[in-house]
Design brief:
The chain has helices spanning about 60, 80-85, and strands at about 1-5, 10-15, 20-25, 35, 40-45, 50-55, 70, 75-80, 115-120, 135-140, 145-150, 195-200, 205-210, 210-220, 225-235, 260, 270-275, 285-290, 300-310, 315-320, 320-330, 335-340, 350-355, 365-370, 395-400, 405-415, 420-425, 440-445. With about 450 residues, the protein is mainly β.
Length: about 450
């Protein structure tokens, strides 16, 4: 038997009833009221909304049973019984005969059939005295059992017929609801484990002082596990023979990934850390910041060492080694000059030789002073100089053979300094004379940086 769903109305809702069906309601009909208007059944909900079941009672004319009702708890009941319990005026079974009148229905011998309360669920249109019907009408007692059949005449010609054979309802196979296929989440394929040999190496780095030395560490293939290694750089505390020193590095910006360990005697520093090449990647980097200073110096180098390379996913791993980095100087202009010297005879003439910036290498220059052998037109002469002190001041004197002498020497401004001096001692005499002068010449200035 088909099922017909009756929805809850928004106002008044009319629906045509399928007579051969079970009516299922989307609301509780046991709290509603029921009335009849013609062949229509009126269901009024508690809040006043209405459902009109059109032609609900048409079975009284068609000879069919009323639709079966399904309650909220899933129980199926006969319409006539339920409607009678809800509204006595809707006693469908009493419409074709007088309930409880056992003498109203007779058998073929004219005897009344006791206990016959009605004609099942037939309406008045299917039963009227003296009207014959081609099909027999079955009588039921109060328990619903069939007592006999009549041909449509009341108390006249009762045909005693056997009850109709039981009707076996068709076997309806259970309907298996369609099974939705399970939703399979997308699967991210794992990174293949590298079973080949992994080779790890670094690249030399270079920068101008003040920039960053960036060492790139790379391996030849990807791996499902991370590759690790230790690195270190050892530098002297001060510049030495073209090697970058700790003072050339910007230690204030090392960050937490660089560990600094000084040597016991303080002559050097070791920078160290660990690199990790993540799984699925092939490279990483180490950054060493450098310091921009005002020192004129040669380009400097340092060495980056890589060791203890490891990867748990590799059959074998090799690599490491040492890689050189270059720091280029950006201070190239060195200016060397001297200041005039003044003294009273018997004192020292001290010439100061200076340069505009420090240098990582010493600055050298040659100097010379040429004087006449004797006083001449306000010029100091060789006789005005205390030659006994020349050796103490690294002065060499040459007789030019033309009545003049030349004093020579070499000055050195040490690395990291900006000046030095030249001292020429004078002789105090008893001669009354004018102030005298001499000239110091500076040549062949040189600096390896």
């Amino acid at each position: 038997m088909a099922t017909q769903l009756i929805s809850a109305p928004e106002g008044t809702y009319s629906v045509k009833v399928d007579l051969a069906s079970t009516l299922t309601f989307a609301f509780d009909i046991q709290t509603s009221s029921f009335d009849r208007e013609g062949d229509n059944l009126i269901i009024t909900l508690e809040d006043g909304r209405k459902v009109v079941l059109e032609d609900f009672f048409i079975v009284e004319k068609e000879g069919d049973d009323l639709p079966t009702l399904q309650l909220a708890d899933g129980t199926e009941v006969a319409s006539a019984d339920f409607l009678l319990s809800m509204n006595p005026d809707l006693d469908v079974t009493a419409s074709g005969a007088t309930a409880g009148s056992g003498s109203d229905y007779a058998d073929n011998a004219g005897e009344g059939l006791d206990g016959v309360d009605g004609m099942g669920k037939l309406g008045t249109d299917h039963w009227s005295g003296g009207v014959s019907h081609a099909d027999p009408i079955y009588l039921t007692d109060n328990e619903g059992d069939v007592l006999g059949a009549v041909n449509g005449q009341r108390s006249d010609s009762v045909n005693t017929l056997p009850p109709p054979p039981p009707v076996t309802p068709p076997v309806v196979p259970p309907v298996t609801p369609p099974v939705e296929p399970p939703v399979t989440p997308p699967v991210t394929p794992p990174v293949d484990i590298v079973v080949e040999a992994i080779v790890v190496g670094g690249k030399a780095a270079a920068t101008v002082e003040g920039g960053n030395l960036v060492f790139t560490i790379a391996q030849n293939v990807t791996s499902s596990a991370a590759t690790t290694a230790n690195w270190s750089i050892t530098v002297p505390a001060a510049a030495t023979d073209g090697r970058a020193s700790y003072a050339d590095l910007d230690s204030a910006n090392f960050g937490g990934n660089i560990t600094v360990t000084p040597s016991i005697d303080g002559s050097s520093y070791t920078l160290s850390g660990m690199i990790t090449i993540p799984a699925g990647a092939t490279s990483t980097s180490v950054t060493i910041p450098t310091l921009d200073d005002a020192i004129i110096e040669n380009d400097e180098t340092l060495t980056f060492n890589l060791s203890n390379v490891a990867n748990p996913a590799a059959d074998s791993i090799s690599g490491g080694g040492s890689y050189t980095a270059l720091i280029s100087d950006n201070d190239h202009s060195l200016v060397v000059s001297g200041n005039p010297a003044v003294t009273v005879e018997g004192g020292d003439l001290v010439f100061t030789i200076s340069q505009n910036a420090e240098s990582s290498a010493p600055t050298t220059a040659n100097w010379s002073v040429t004087v006449p052998a004797t006083a001449d037109d306000g010029r100091a002469s060789y006789a005005d100089l205390d030659t006994s002190k020349f050796a103490d001041n690294n002065i060499t004197a040459y007789d030019n053979g033309d009545g003049s002498w030349t004093l020579i020497g070499v000055i050195t401004i040490p690395a990291g300094s900006t000046s030095t001096s030249i001292t020429i001692p004078t002789l105090e005499d008893a001669i009354i004379e004018l102030d005298e002068t001499l000239t110091l010449n500076l040549t062949d200035v040189a600096n390896a940086a």
